[in-house]
Amino acid sequence: MNNPAFDLLMWARGPGFDIALAIFIGGIVLRLTEIIILGRKKDMAPAKGNGFLQGLKTIFSRSVPRKGLIKFAPVTYLGGYIFHLGFFIAFFFFAPHIALIQDAFGISWPAAGRVIIESVTALAVLAVVALTYSRLTDPVRKSLTTFDDYLVLLLSVLPLITGYVAVNKLFGDPTMMLAVHLLSVEALMIAFPFTKLMHAVSFVFARYYNGSIQGRKGAES
Amino acid sequence: MSATLERGLNALREQIDAPVASFFTSCVSCGLCAEACLFYRETEDPQYTPIKKLDLMRRMWSREFTLLGRIGGWLGLTKPITDADLTAWEPLVYDSCTMCGRCTLVCPVGNDLTMMIRKMREGMSASGHGPVELIGAAQRHIDGNSAMGDLSKAIHAQVKNAVADTGIEIEFDKPGVDYMVILSAQEIAEFPDVLGAMARIFKKAGVTWTISSEAFEATNVGIQIGSRDIARTLVQRLVDAAEKLGVKGVISPECGHAYQALRWEGPNLIGRAYNFEVIHIIELLDQLRAQGKLKTKGMNTQKLTFHDPCQINRRGGINKEPRRLMNMVAENFVETEDAGTMNWCCGGGGGVGANERAAPLRNIAFKRKKAQIDKVNPDAIVTMCAYCHHTLDNVLEEFNMDLEVMGLTELVAEYLDDDA
Ligand code: SF4
Ligand code: SF4
């Protein structure tokens, strides 16, 4: 039996995934090492507040926008939230994903219903479209945007689209579409450490540093 | 490569540490920092987006501190920083940033952009870039006793006036007292009433103090221009004077960057903790209030609002103290929108106020502050930084706004209960 779609799926599930995972993890370790190795000097000014605790707090609290700012960049704020939440829900609460995680790590949690998964996926895709549009048209975003930013948007939206197509058997051979879905995830993993996707890990450090610097002074962050 | 360029790049390189690397790694170019910045908000010019002001530093980090960037460099895909680059960035780094700190509180990934501007200025100034006025002020302060020139005679004259006004003795160079008081050049030159105000408040509270004739000036142009060497020299003078007098503490005056310099950067500049505490005058007044040593009588009935100096509140952590004092003496105290941590900068901080080339841009950026004030429509503005005071006085006049500006210490002293 010679089924190229099946072969591709098997490759993507096996060696393909292993290669992507190795680059993903190895790359993240490399990038984090590049950061941490630089160190920072001990602060000799007597502290007024607790920098450590405020650093930890800021990792979470910075997820909430400052009062009154959303109206100045609604597409960036709302698009950003919808994309991140949609991607997160589709990734962690889709039943087949949970099954994979259970296979690999032996842990599982309740899945979200199909309607929810499909709605958040569609919303996340729309959010990426809106974010791309604002990068093309808004003067500030336009002036900041580089190839990296478009690549990141593309790599983030492909797994959503291919997953949606594969699950709903919208077109093409379902086995093939599943293989393509997996490959798109692997492309995301490989690019992750070397593009701005890396923010999804390094933001923890950035927010911690910000909060701890401000917190030592007893200032808000 | 010229020697100055090399010195500048080395200075910049030295500034890149783990926080900086984590910030550049995390930036998603969302542009939200622009919305926080008074210069972008009032001009809507994308070049004033905070992260763009740091682009040279980002380029250096990427080329030299990341594997991919290094490979790109070997392949000739990226270019090293040139003197022309530094010249092009000078107006962005010095004229369009007051180091107000708002962007730092807005960036969703948590980048401390203001701290990076501070760091980038190290590279700029070491390579010979920086506003001439700041370079001149630094020279004057290093050669003499103040950024404004020789203020030795002026301080003695002002002290004499304060003694005549209040009848309270103020002694220079008195060892063993509680506090050494230092003043900003602006206070000595423009707002000397603060001396009499402190004399009266401290007398009532039983606080002993002195002024050092060797080191009485608090401003530190080193942290504005971005020169650790200059900043260290100026901090060291104050530390030497305070330790020689054996005081318990040094009172940092109503001056934003002076507080930042002495309280937060100073120990790191001189490489050790001090043998005395540094306390901001408003922190001290609030402490005295809490201890029942500062009592007032009567209240100001005007509609007063408060302007938070960036380096004292947002970047200095003194937020509630002035409000407690305001409530003691102001019957009709109205806060502006965004007051407190997210207050808008007066536009004069970070050396921008002294920089003539920046004046037109500064006046445009001030419109943000103006809008904030206009909404409240107060009779007067109270603040706790003499340089904010000076800037507000000047721009309000420029905009034909007839508004009084006052220092919080003087306001409190006005209502001091002399009988209590
Ligand atoms: S707000 Fe932060 S993440 Fe967004 S562009 Fe500015 S520095 Fe980058
Ligand atoms: S510190 Fe203030 S003035 Fe400077 S870039 Fe940030 S928001 Fe703008």
SSE order and pairing:
The complex is a heterodimer of chains A (221) and B (420).
Chain A: H1 4-36, H2 51-61, H3 74-93, H4 95-105, H5 114-137, H6 139-144, H7 147-168, H8 174-191, H9 199-216
Chain B: H1 3-15, H2 18-26, H3 32-36, H4 38-43, H5 50-53, H6 55-65, H7 67-74, H8 83-95, H9 102-106, H10 113-126, H11 132-143, H12 152-166, E1 179-181, H13 185-189, H14 193-205, E2 209-210, H15 221-225, H16 228-245, E3 249-252, H17 256-270, E4 277-280, H18 281-290, E5 300-307, H19 320-329, E6 330-333, H20 359-376, E7 380-383, H21 386-398, E8 404-407, H22 408-414
Parallel strand pairs in B: 1-2, 1-3, 3-4, 5-6, 5-7, 7-8
Helix pairs in contact in B: 1-10, 6-7, 8-10, 12-14, 14-22, 16-17, 18-19
Bound molecules: iron/sulfur cluster (2 copies).
One iron/sulfur cluster (SF4) binds at residues 27-33, 51, 107-109, 111, 113 of chain B.
Tell me the radius of gyration of chain A: 20 Å
Strand line-up in the sheet with most strands of chain B: 2-1-3-4
Q: How many extended strands of chain A? A: 0
**Separation of the first and last Cα atoms of chain A:** 62 Å
In CATH, the homologous superfamily of chain A goes by the name Transmembrane di-heme cytochromes, Chain C
Estimate the mean pLDDT confidence of chain A: 96
Biggest interface, which chains?
A-B, 60 and 61 residues
Structural class of chain A: mainly alpha
Please state the second-level CATH architecture of the largest domain in chain B.
Answer: 3-Layer(aba) Sandwich
The N- and C-terminal alpha carbons of chain B lie at a distance of 69 Å
CATH hierarchy class name of chain A: Mainly Alpha
Largest sheet of chain A: none
Total domain units of chain A: 1
Listing every helix as H and every strand as E from the N terminus to the C terminus, the arrangement of chain A reads HHHHHHHHH
Tell me the structural class of chain B.
alpha/beta
Number of helices of chain B: 22
Ligand inventory reads: iron/sulfur cluster
Major sheet description of chain B: 4 strands, parallel
Q: What's the architecture of chain A, going by CATH? A: Up-down Bundle
Number of domains of chain B: 3
